[in-house]
Amino acid sequence: MSTPRIRVGNGCGFWGDQPDAPILLVQHGQLDFLTLEYLAELTMSILAQQRQRDARLGYATDFLEVLERLAPVWNSQPNLRVITNAGGLSPVACAERAVEILRQQGLRKRIGVVLGDDILPRLDDLLASGHVLAHFDTGEPLQHIRNRVVTANVYLGAEPIVLALERGADLVITGRVADASLTVAPAVWAFRWSWQDYDKLAAATVAGHLIECGAQVTGGLYTDWHTVPDLWNVGYPIAEINADGTVCILKPDQSGGLVSVDTVREQLLYEVGDLSAYLTPDVVADFTSLRLRSLQPDGVEIAGVHGRPAPETYKVAITYRDGYICSGQIVVTGRDAEEKARLCADIIRQRLRRAGMEPEQYYAELLGAGDTVPGVWPRTQPCEIVLRITAWDRRRTVLERFAREFAPLVTSGPPGITGYATGRPPVREVFAYWPALLDRSAVRPEIHILET
Amino acid sequence: MRLYDLATARSGDKGNHANIAVLARSAQAYEFLRHYLTPQRIADYFATLSPRHVQRYEAPNLLGLNFILYDVLAGGAARSLRLDSQGKALAVALLEMEIPETTSSI
User: Fold this and answer.
1) Computed from CA positions of residues A28, A84, A432, A54, in that sequence, does the dihedral angle turn out positive or negative?
2) Which pTM does this prediction carry?
3) Residue range(s) defining the domain that contains residue A325
4) What kind of fold does domain B3-99 have according to CATH?
5) What chain B residue is nearest to A321 in terms of C-alpha separation?
6) Which of B47, B83, B95 sits opposite A375 (nearest CB)?
7) What percent of chain B is helix, strand and coil (3-state, nearest 5)?
8) From the list B76, B79, B83, which residue is nearest A388 (CB)?
9) Residue A277 lies in a domain
């Protein structure tokens, strides 16, 4: 007698992840659900820039390429469901393009679109009705930077995704949702768990947290990297979730990589805080309660996860304009490379000062001499150093001048400078991050359904 | 001996803060590291990054210690002037920490 279970695979850990991973995972993973995660903390501001240039954009366009390649495989696995946050700032635009692609490929699918995370249009109303949206760390009220806000999105939970699945969606496209909720939703829907089944919700949350970064749980980043076979062909992770709330982390047969208690422990503690309280909109998961057990050859079973009711507030990710940044590089070679690199950094600063264009912030790193973590790596005497200088200023003009100061070093600096072939470094607008909290009652997720 | 001999590690970012997870290779190593790897020792090791505060969380079931280093990323992913604006290099840097043989007896 077998317990009801589902297999959820995550084929994308961030926008820019391996293009072949989702297809390989679907081909070899025997999945019930494929999740694709595209939205890092600052992705929304990049999407905002794209939407500014073209109103039809504002979503993770890579997803459409995945969908095009996925369609033929999906045809032979008609029960597969796909859940993704590729919608970004424009879930409807993303879904409309998805409809076109699926129609072209002759696939009849129902698409559920989750809306309601984007609170930018409501921001002034929210502030006026007493929601301060204070900075999570500093307590500063949002009003101080209100006129510079570019995006404002609530991290929604699994509930609206479950509603979309209940309405028969084969593909669910969301904007901002908590990453783990992409995995929690199919489990809640498949097993009809209640929103008070805290331990089970917490177990699915652990599963989602473990697979959300793709190959990071299947051998990527692992400290003992030399023990990981065929990292070039690393298998993307599968969470096998049982109706009783136990979870197995696996990867496709024949794939490279490694799933072990050690790779799972490392990823469990990746980018988390209090280990007894991993907060999501669905539940608070206690990582200190769970047990890991090795399954041969490549798998880990997770049991005993405890959960508590979710917080009364949603996390909000706000981005705002914060000046300009520019980062340039040259390579300094030969004897005394370190001293020469320091001289180059000083030369640029002095020339900018002479021109009345010294940036408000100026930072030089001697890469190769230990500056990625300054003061920690043992200093060596390398024969070549990448000199990276980064500057920030409120004025774009200052940084445009800064960008012009690298090339002249080739003729008017110390000897042995090379590697300046990529042209002037670009000046970028900075979008800084403003985390905040918002009462759950102020947010109302909505579902739209489209058919192909 | 260095920390790598006793533990694995992984680091990442949370806004302007970094976390470094340290996973002991044995129960014995965990007991030692729980005493040896104090928040103060981590703060001293990364003194050049000027952490405002170091908080430690423990998970004995995973033989794991999680350190949050507050305000060490010089503004975080988009705003930081540093190359390692997301703290990706902190774990491998911490694993180079020298552990005095006499203190560990492992």
Assistant:
1) positive
2) 0.96
3) 320-431
4) Alpha-Beta Plaits (3.30.70)
5) B79
6) B47
7) 35, 30, 40
8) B83
9) yes
